[in-house]
Fold:
Amino acid sequence: MRAATVVVIEALALAAVELSRTVAAGSLAGIGGESGGINPDGDRQRTIDIVADRLMREALRTAPVAAVLSEEAELPETLDADAPLCVAIDPLDGSANLENNISVGTIFSIRPKAHDIISTFFEPGTAQCAAGCFIYGPQTILVLALDQCVDCFTLDPRTNEFVLSACDLRVSQDTSEFAINASNRRHWSGAVRGFIDQCLAGVDGERGQDFNMRWIGSLVAEAYRILIRGGVFLYPADARQGYREGRLRLLYEAHPIALIMEWAGGAASDGRTRILELSARTPHQRVPLIMGSTRAVRDVDAIHQKVEPLFESSDAPLFARRGLFR
Ligand code: F6P
Ligand code: MN
Structure:
């Protein structure tokens, strides 16, 4: 199984070299605009999303992959039904940021095929045997979670090879940096507001330290920053229409990023449950994601224990209820 997993990663890396060149060419590649399509989760597709999807699928066809589930298609595509692995992929995460020349990336999750393809994708995130992301930024970097540890490889543009550049990354346990889209504050639950208010209170508040804030709007770039210098990232559920399970998708965003975080000694939760213990009910299911430095993630979980949820069940909003922090 490990040998097959490595073949999949190598195939993805070849495609990433090409995608990184296309991304770097920007408007010169002539694929900057919108395609006119909408992906299964309702995001507007750019032509480059479709190009990235095609590149990654073509690569996976050359590898021992039974099926691929992509952000850009409604259902998994069967490639070689007898092959041992299945892949979930976000071919170009953060693509809306490209017009601003901000880092984007490809996120992938690899798992052994269960007794059938569909049930493979409905297993918990602990079923993953490897995960990673390519970041197309000032450097093209592969962050790879394999064999219970996380390594980084930097693309050498002279040889088109990914060269090992950092071994066994460890996320710092403590942090004084948080990341959240603060424009949604009025829609957050009491728990999320409570945690962020503690951070904003700085040295005078109960956390007893000043915090810095970052929000890139590109999950791969946030995850990389946290791997390098710690931090906590929150994309919680909120009260906006369509956001009751957050924004990020479980199978090709939260699961692989959670595997990277945990294998680097960090944590990832939905506020109550470890992300890796969650199973998807639908291919594009969303999930709240809190990830990064373990102590901060645990503190967010602890606050969630104390306050009532934003939603009691999948169809009962509880805005009027008072929580500890409301
Ligand atoms: O794929 C979703 C994504 O682009 C992530 O990369 C990023 O973390 C998030 O959306 C940003 O969402 P928002 O624009 O709501 O802050
Ligand atoms: Mn994405």
Observations:
- Residues 93-94, 181, 217-219, 235, 247-248 surround 6-O-phosphono-beta-D-fructofuranose (ligand 1) (CB under 6 Å).
